[in-house]
Design brief:
The complex is a heterodimer of chains A (446) and B (322). Chain A has 446 residues and is mostly helical. Chain A contains 21 helices and three strands. Chain A is 63% helix and 3% strand. In chain A, strands 1-3-2 form a three-stranded antiparallel beta sheet, with no helix packed on it. Chain A is globular, with a radius of gyration of 22 Å. Chain B folds into two domains: 92 residues, Immunoglobulin-like (Sandwich), CATH 2.60.40; 177 residues, Cytochrome c-like domain (Cytochrome Bc1 Complex, Chain D, domain 2, Orthogonal Bundle), CATH 1.10.760. In chain B, 37% of the residues lie in helices and 15% in strands. Chain B contains eleven helices and nine strands. Chain B has a five-stranded mixed beta sheet, with no helix packed on it. Chain B has a four-stranded mixed beta sheet with strand order 2-1-4-7, with no helix packed on it. Classes of the chains: A mainly alpha (446), B alpha+beta (322).
């Protein structure tokens, strides 16, 4: 079922070409800086400001509806946020390394070599999301903070520490990249084992060592590979391949890490809370989520945290324990908990797809307006500044969302069945859990 | 350093500079000789800027936008039709003033509880050096009325007076009662007492006299003036005073929360029939200190205010057909 794309010389040369990648990155960086500028200098009206419309509607739509499901970490390969820091760290934009690192080049502490910090940063952003998603200036501040943080971390630490351990977006992209039908893998592991210098990790005259701190020879899943193509350039044995594969191939090898398990709960819960707050009819809830710093907002924040870090994992834990009891399994509950959490990956991804379909189709017409008048300054660059707001595909939306959620549930059930067979725990309670949260999400969206 | 590296660095630096500087430069260039006014609800600051300078005969180019909800921009005491000021959109407007003075611009949409505070001024200077026009003080000042004092009606009708019925007795009425000066300086209750004391009308019943009062009040209005008054009342007053004038508009609760009092109930004869048009003019012109009542002096012309006052009395009197 796998097919190697890099077998095609044209594709391979495109992927290895630094100029092409730089060109794409350049466009992305220009758009990113433009979003910051428009956030600070443009109209404070969110739906007429490029920063809100292009970051939270256009980019988000592309990311969650196309990039992540089909290309995994494909976005990370062209993300502009780490680029200025990486250029400063390397002392070069295009040129392969010719000298040793000039900055501190520290290794990231071992205790923090997990995605707990990413879970934290995502949760922080999520807590303030109602304001971030609607207020251009706040969006500009968040984007600027990410840019400066990435630069700072590139100066202090080696490789792309920000992307790997802090980026609030990178954490969930990595989680859901496991479901993508594309992967970077080595062709022959023995060749990697026999390779003496391991330039894919250490770098060479033709390219940099893996910015994501990965040894490609040990890659078994997409979670932490940023698809930057550096190893494709540095491997002296032409042993790196970009393959197409069936969806969710990585889920056959469930993670046993608690940080990744909690990432699944955070994402599942956040999609449900967002659906309630941003799409639901509850004015008081919207108001509480927006009123940062007030008692109501603290109440909302506490409920949000309790839901994603308390209620959902607790119910899931009970489901695992019940399955364990019913199947009289002696597999530790913690092991069952972390491995079964993998079943929430396809479910969570489909929750986000269903949620995003709703607000993207509702707000997509603002893209045309912001394209012509990105600052809300009365420009009309492409003649679309006066396009009136209208939601798209309204009649197809509900059936589409229902299909997506049911598809996610079936996908999750199938994954849980496979995991159940592997860990010898009855998956039925997990299936019930997934079904209940899907019904809740259906209720929130429809 | 390789040429490709130099080229890539130049590309990145030039790109960043272009992205950051070109939009700002274009905006600055386009904005020359244009005043950009941002509208926000009064609680967030109102119009920004709230004062502008202009010169007589020199076109003033304005670009209007809203930073929150829909507003509308109008110039007080002028014939300029209000223009909508939409969030995130620019509305361009050019004004030319032919007389120096202070002009007030204001919002004409109910944008928030303190909507009426959304005001700004345009100081127009220059122009002819003719002697300044003499301005007569408003009637309530000439009469030295205390417009903040209670004005209970000493007498009220048992039934709603009708101008149509009153017209049947109009021939008995001295023309003095129909003069604008009389109408504007007397409350309906005072007029009733005057008429009641008039021996020429002694044969009339009390309701007949009240009908005559209604007739006098109708005689001092025109259908056009009433229609304009009704429209302006709906646009500017009904938010607090209510469409039916009963002091129960959508912002009434907010006014009570701020001031401790509900907006005035124009349908209440006990207070309304004790108020003369001159007293109401004073309240409209100056506003109600501490009551939440806006001051409309810079916004409405005299004629407009008399039209609104005429309409206010329709909450007491049946106007009937003319």
């Amino acid at each position: 079922m796998r097919s190697e794309l890099t077998r095609l010389p044209f594709v391979k040369s495109l992927l290895k070409n630094r100029w092409l990648q730089l060109l794409v990155l350049f466009v992305m960086l220009a758009g990113f800086l433009f979003a910051i500028l428009s956030g600070f200098a443009g109209t404070p009206v969110g739906n007429h400001n490029f920063s809100i419309v292009f970051v939270w509607i256009a980019w988000w739509a592309i990311l969650i509806l196309v990039a992540v499901p089909f290309f995994g970490r494909g976005w990370c390969a062209v993300c502009p946020i780490p680029m200025p820091g990486e250029w400063i760290q390397r002392g070069a934009i295009l040129e392969p390394p010719s000298r040793k690192p000039r900055w501190l080049n520290l290794r990231w502490p071992n205790k923090l070599r997990n995605i707990w910090l990413q879970n934290l940063t995502f949760t922080l952003v999520a807590l303030f999301s109602s304001v971030i998603l609607t207020t251009p200036k706040v969006t500009a501040i968040v984007l600027s903070a990410m840019l400066f943080l990435a630069v700072g971390m590139s100066i202090v630490f080696e490789r792309r520490t920000f992307c790997r351990y802090l980026c609030p977006v990178g954490g969930f992209i990595g989680l859901y990249a496991q479901a993508a039908p594309i992967e970077l893998r080595v062709k022959d592991k023995q060749a990697c084992a026999a390779c003496k210098d391991k330039p894919c990790y250490n770098g060479s005259q033709v390219g940099y060592g893996c910015p994501w701190d990965i040894f490609p020879g040990g890659l078994t899943k997409n979670t932490y590979c940023g698809l930057c193509m550096e190893c494709l350039r540095t491997c002296p044995y032409d042993n790196i391949a970009i393959n197409t594969r069936p969806f969710a191939a990585d889920l056959a090898k469930p993670s046993r890490k608690m940080d990744e398990a909690f990432k699944a709960f955070i994402m599942l819960g956040a999609a449900m809370v967002y659906a309630g707050v941003l799409l639901g009819p509850w004015g008081a809830l919207k108001s509480a989520a927006y009123s940062v710093g007030t008692v109501a907002w603290f109440g909302y924040g506490m409920a949000f945290l309790a839901f994603i870090f308390g209620l959902l994992p607790a119910l899931f834990w009970l489901a695992v324990k019940l399955g364990q009891e019913l199947s009289k399994s002696d597999v530790p509950a913690r092991h069952g908990f972390t491995t079964f959490a993998t079943a929430l990956v396809p479910l969570g991804l489909m929750f986000w797809v269903a949620f995003s379909l709703s607000f993207v189709l509702t707000n997509a017409s603002y893209i045309l307006v912001a394209l012509s008048d990105p600052f809300g300054w009365g420009w009309n660059l492409f003649g679309t500044a006066a396009v009136t707001w209208q939601p798209y595909l309204t009649t197809a939306l509900v059936p589409l969302q229902t299909l997506v959620l049911i598809g996610g549930l079936l996908w999750s059930v199938r994954t849980a069945q496979k995991i159940g067979t592997e860990v010898k725990i009855l998956p039925v309670p997990i299936v019930v859990f997934s079904t209940l949260v899907t019904l809740a999400m259906l209720g929130l969206l429809l | 350093m390789k040429r490709s590296e130099i080229l890539s660095r130049l590309l990145v630096i030039a790109g960043v500079l272009i992205v950051l500087s070109v939009p700002l430069a274009v905006h600055f260039y386009n904005g020359q000789n244009i005043v950009e006014i941002h509208g926000r609800v009064a609680e967030s600051g109102g119009w920004s800027p709230s004062s502008i300078e202009a010169k007589v005969g020199v076109p003033l180019h304005l670009r209007l936008t809203s930073d929150d909800v829909m507003h509308s921009f109008a110039i007080g005491q002028s014939d300029m039709a209000p223009v909508d000021v939409a969030p995130g959109k620019m509305t361009e407007l050019t004004l030319t003033f032919d007389k120096p003075g202070t002009y007030t611009y204001y919002c004409t949409r109910w944008c928030g509880p303190n909507h009426w505070r959304m005001r700004g001024t345009i100081e127009v200077s220059g122009g002819s050096s003719d002697a300044p026009q003499l301005v007569s003080p408003p009637l309530y000042m000439t009469l030295n009325l205390n417009i903040d004092a209670p004005h209970p009606a000493p007498v009220t009708p048992a039934d709603r007076p009708s101008a149509l019925r009153g017209a049947a007795f109009a021939a008995m009425l001295s023309s003095n009662y129909l003069m604008p000066d009389y109408y504007r300086t007397h409350s309906p209750a005072q007029a009733y007492l005057d008429l009641r004391a008039d021996s020429a009308l002694s044969s009339l019943s009390d309701p007949n006299v009240w009908d005559l009062v209604a007739y006098i009040w109708q005689s001092n209005t025109t259908p056009d003036g009433l229609a304009k008054g009704q429209r302006l009342f709906a646009q500017n007053c009904a938010a607090c005073h209510g469409e039916s004038g009963e002091g129960n508009g959508v912002f009434a609760a907010g006014v009570k929360a701020q001031t401790g009092k509900l907006p005035v109930n124009f349908a209440d004869p006990a207070s309304m029939l004790g108020a003369s048009p001159a007293l109401l003019q004073g309240k409209i012109l100056r506003g109600g200190m501490g009551t939440g009542m806006p001051y409309w002096g810079p916004i409405f012309s005299d004629e407009t205010i008399w039209g609104i006052i005429g309409y206010l009395y329709t909450f007491q009197f049946d106007e009937g057909q003319r």
